[in-house]
Amino acid sequence: MNAKQMREILDVIAEMFPDAHCELNHSNPFELTIAVLLSAQCTDETVNKVTADLFKKYKRPEDYLSVPLEELQQDIKRIGLYRNKAMHIQKLCRLLLDKFDGQIPQEHDKLVELPGVGRKTANVVMSNAFGVPAIAVDTHVERVSKRLGAAKPDDSVLEVEKKLMKLVPREEWTLTHHRLIFFGRYHCKAQNPACSICPLLDRCKEGKRRMKPTRNRKDKEGTPLQR
User: Fold this and answer.
1) What pLDDT digit, counting tens, does each position of 57-98 carry?
2) Is 198 marked as a binding-site residue?
3) Burial 100-110 (b: 16+ CB within 10 A, else e)
4) Residue 224, helix vs strand vs coil
5) What structural domains and CATH numbers belong to the chain?
6) Is 22 annotated as a binding residue?
7) Which residues are catalytic?
8) Mean pLDDT throughout 106-122?
9) Are residues 25 and 35 in contact, defined by beta-carbon separation less than 8 angstroms?
10) How would you label 29-42 residue by residue, b for 16+ Cβ within 10 Å and e otherwise?
11) Whole-number Å distance between alpha carbons of 202 and 85
């Protein structure tokens, strides 16, 4: 894929989701970091339900460290992998106090030092909290990028990120990240993508395969399936 082809794809997705944005509720970089950490293998909707109460109870790193680990685990029990995430949150808060004066660092290499914060989380925080252009490759961005040909099926997450950074103008990285997420979350879903009404079907090998006529396929009994 070249930059011109990517431009055409971005323009279509922009028309579909002009108001794409970060759907994790937060009011500062610290809350966003906690929310993104919690969102791993969990929906934003569930995270927002949990943080509605969590962010009222815990305002600062000190607050998360003032309770036993078991209490924090109970507070986020609706979140997948809540035990590990509670442990990461407390370790993250301890490191913030010990090394960063209790503040979320604004440098990518320092963000990834924080427990539970990988490259994707750091990119989300950098772009949404500090306004630094970044493309965070989550499961939606990865899936859409590969289906539309911006990346190869066997590319790693880092390779997908690098290819998108080359194809997309830097000033559009953050917005593109959000729009690809919306496209993947609400249209090009993992299990039931809306191929029949997709304006980008001609770009998608998987979509074309899904839309092939079923006339010659047979069911388990060998009876031709009817269209």
Assistant:
1) 999 999 999 999 999 999 999 998 999 999 999 999 999 999
2) yes
3) beeebbeeeee
4) strand
5) 1-193 (1.10.340.30)
6) no
7) 120, 138
8) 93
9) yes
10) bbbbbbbbbbbbeb
11) 41
